[in-house]
Automatic annotation (TrEMBL):
It is found in: Cell membrane. It comes from Streptomyces thermolilacinus SPC6. It is a multi-pass membrane protein. One of its GO terms (cellular component) is plasma membrane. It comes from the Bacteria. Its main location: membrane. The keyword NADP does not apply. The chain crosses the membrane at residues 31-50, 56-75, 95-115, 135-157, 169-190, 210-230, 251-270, 290-310, 341-360, 372-394, 415-433, 439-458. GO terms for biological process: amino acid transport; transmembrane transport. Residues 29-460 form the Amino acid permease/ SLC12A domain. The lineage of its organism: Bacteria, Bacillati, Actinomycetota, Actinomycetes, Kitasatosporales. This is Proline-specific permease ProY. Keywords: Amino-acid transport, Cell membrane, Membrane, Transmembrane, Transmembrane helix, Transport.
Amino acid sequence: MTSSKVENDHSGDGAVGEGYQRGLGARQIQMIAIGGAIGTGLFLGAGKAISKAGPSLVLAYAIAGLVIFFIMRALGELLMYRPVSGSFSEYAREFIGPFAGFVTGWTYWLFWVVTGITEVTAAATYMTYWWNIPQWISALVFTVVLYGANLISVKLFGELEFWFSMVKVTAIVGMILICAGILTLGFSDAGDTASVTHLWADGGFFPKGIGGTVMTLQIVMFAFLAVELVGVTAGESKDPETTLPKAINTVPWRIAVFYVGALIMILSVVPWTHFKPGVSPFVAAFEQMGLGVGAAIVNFVVLTAALSSCNSGMYSTGRMLRDLALNGQGPRLFTRLTRSGTPLIGTTFSAALMLVGVWINYQWPGDAFEKVVSFATISGMWAWIMILISQIRYRARADRGELPQSSFKAPGAPFTSWFALLFIFGVIVMMGIDAEARVSLYCAPIWALILGVSYLVLRSRDPENAAFRR
């Protein structure tokens, strides 16, 4: 399925040219898009970011959210030009070159394998909150169940993701409503002290200075990783021309409500000085309110978020491996599909690696494994960079009349795409400055070397598919 061979597919239900089934409806696509923007980065990671920036973290989320919208609109323009399951790997291959597609496909695959390993292990850890059972048993059960669900049909994957996302959305909306009630009616232990003045009363809106706020942008951007997953569903959406633009256009209000809105409400009820790294701001808020059930609720929500991420990993890894195989950039056996249109071998291979990773994490939870896990952040941003560069090149060719115009043009592009690119590179620079985040950059050259050597081998065996540009 080289880029020169794939035709636009705008069919309805049933089999598509890639062999997949159009099994994801509008309801599921919308919740996959929403769930992709809400993860453990918000429920757990926001505590560290609040302690570093104070109330100005709200502004950081708003700015980063705007950049994410630019990225998603760039992806949307490409998706409406050619909706394929390979998504940004396919676009990188077409508009930058086969080597870029090779790197993007394998890097995004690794991103989800590593993420799946960490998330299924985390989910097993969260289970010990209620039951004292061995962690490996929970990890095994979760992996097998999600693996089975992904093999049965894409519709079942979509249904699971719908309900996982529903739990996360319900939790955030519930928190916002509770905080609004405390601010207006004054109930709970926090009723007497809750006030919007907390947003600027304790050291001002920028208590750690503007520099402190800027340095949290890397943490904020990490929270949005996986928002691009909706692009991988393009080849299996029932009506991509309608459902995908609607899902992408909801990005602004999703970020406004679930990130900016939720943080404004929480920081109005609980002063920012009460939050600490490693402690969920939701748990801290519930404790301040005197609601003892808060910890159990948040534990359930974070468990759901972890399973949602692992479920997404199962889904996307199989599709990426099949896309690489169809383009001659991966083993041909990954092209096989089940009768229901799911990539059997690719999903099985990825799930097996996730199981091995759970075992490694259980046996040797030392620094070496942590360094591999940290690589997930930089590999996720690589996909965003490829999306933006591909959109810039596509728009240039479409404007010259060489390619058909997309029905869903990114507003302000290519300037918005260039802005988003510069922003991402700025975040990478900040990662290099921050000692805690710098480890992510150390892993990148190692992976680049592995890919480079692999590509040279591929090039010697199949020059046509491995040509740097055609």
